[in-house]
Amino acid sequence: MFGNDMRGILLAMAFLPFALMAELVPAPVFGDNMVLQRQAMVPVWGTADPNEIVSVSFAGQKITAAADANGKWMVRLAPMEASKEGRELVIAGKDKSLTYKNILVGEVWLCSGQSNMEMPMWSNNERWRNYDGDKYCAEGANDMIRFTRMALYEWSTFPRTDYPMKWQPMTADNTQGFSAVAFFFSHELQEALDIPIGLVGSYWGGTRIEPWTPPCGFDSMPSLADISRYVNTKLPGHPLYDEASQKTIDDFSNWLREFKNARENRQQLPPPPAYDNNLVAFPNHQSSTVLYNRMLYPFVPFAFRGAIWYQGCSNLGDGAIYQDKMQALFNGWKQVFQNPDLKFYFVQLAPYTYGGNGEALPIIWEAQERFAQANAPAVGMAVINDVGNLTDIHPHDKKTVGHRLALLTLKRDYGKTDLKADSPIRTDFTVEGNAFVVNFANVESWKTTNDEPVKHFAVAGIDQQFKPANVEFRGSKLVVSSPEVANPKYLRFMWNQRCEGNLYNEAGLPLGAFRISLDVSKDEARDYLTHDVKLVYKYDLRSGTRKDDGGRSVAYLEDNHEAIQGKVKRIIYYVDATNNDDTNVWCGISMDPFTQELGKIGVPTAASGACFAQNVDNLLVLSNVAGIHTGRHAHGNIEFWASNYGMENQAHVKNGKGNLYDIGDGGFSVGNIGYGSMQIHLFEHSQTVFAYNNFAAGTDSDFGVGNSNTEHPDWTFSHSLKNYKEATLYVYVEVE
Q1: Are residues 509 and 603 located together in one domain of the fold?
Q2: Residue 535 falls inside a structural domain
Q3: Domain of 506?
Q4: Which of 125, 332, 541, 628 has the most C-beta neighbours closer than 10 Å?
Q5: 572 vs 530: CA distance, rounded Å
């Protein structure tokens, strides 16, 4: 009837107790004082006896539907205009009639997220309330604003509908515990539109984005296929559930038969097969889909204009993939609420001292902005980097937050086109001398807080040593430069978690964090990396180990390690390769020395005795390969040895999997001749920068820059060097 988007509804009904199907029961979102969405087909649904005829009457409409064999029924009211008149909604079956009173028609919004959406207008905890929230509540009574919320904090493996919801007109007494963001958002909409506003609140502090996302959202994003499979394998009726459960039955049946035979024959008993982890039950409320199942599903597919969303702190470590997770949430909500035109306005996170990697927050800011721009105008982002609190993850000024969300929807959805609602967004740029000249949308002129200097701009050259930058206003453009950077390649604005905004457009809306990176050519990279250094080794990667000494060494094209004197300050690895279709691949990596023995910094052969499985520090990575995390990195790790090795992450390298060959392998032995590994990794990014393995195989060796798209990210067993007609490794040192 409703396609794949109703899969969750059908599944939920299978888990409802029969008692609920034995009488007329509307969905729990319907009640006295509610607001219905104007200008939309409004679904009204619930359960009844199988095949029972149900009628829904409201505002002169009467629509009937028969419950299906499972007792489910749904009707859709025809689009209505806004109405302040409190009218009755009557739902009647064969033996029962329910009347909901004082029903208005207007604009309805879902309000969801984690603690900053949950933060109330007022509480006894001074760290958990809006500035002067008690005063705003005392003045905030408005019968044209109605709200309800999922006041429980529960999760469920399967969709559930059994939670009563109560709609209330906004009074001076009942809003202190309601979302402060939603309070200010709704007041501004109601005042501007002069029509009823309905709010449905569902939020839970500290929660990630994945629990709020329906299964179809993950299904829509190929980059999240692992999550999709993890979720769908647990859903009875899904093909992946059937496939995995049948395989488990087969595996354990075969094992049990073998076990019995072994026992009867007094033989060694075989161990049981591994259990598919995807079949294991969700462990907690942070698991994917489980909050959607419990805290959103009771009112799916209620008619909304859109949603406001404030979340992200709990996904801080996700990096760029958070963009895809937001897309999955948005795609999923549009589908389950059966509203392809659903609006979605969200709050970019505020600055805060999270600790750890100070750039993790700017990367989330960047992901949030990219999501907004990819889905505009249906999606908009409120920038609030000027109203955060570096020592409190819950800033207390939610009025500004609600105001900026309201501006977006008033302009985009309600015809207030004269409003300036969007923060400045970088468009294009040029480089003039030593300055970036950056163009922006949504700005005519610039201003700063109290006319103070612009903060938090920095530029860098190819070395990515960022220097504080000066900023000149040139109309809507910004001219950014530093006297310390003659040839700028990189620009960053607010690229740290502690950066607080002070730069605004003429409407007082702040500029959000952004960065610019210019391409670095091979010649530029090599000239920089090899300036004032000495060549230690030049090696044809295709040549392999020497046959005349049993593969104990390699034949370098140049070997100067005995002639170079002095203390090593830096070690530089540079790879220049051309594949069989004439595409050039290059990569340069500079790092602090991990040894002073120059005989051990080349290919780690048995003859050299080189064997390193350790961190390296202060890396600079440059490359033309897409996806490489170029730039400066505080730490990485190397895996240099001549022997065989295993998947086990014996060194406990961060992000090492232990069940595939990647950034954290082990099982090697010093001095033995085996497969061989020469790998440099950025473990924070789960990335192999450069790999050369299986040295003895010559042109059939493993070689790659960046992660392999084969099973093993570090190119082990890829035999990929045969794809290159040239591949040369240069090893340099800077000495003092």
Answers
A1: no
A2: yes
A3: 425-517
A4: 332
A5: 8
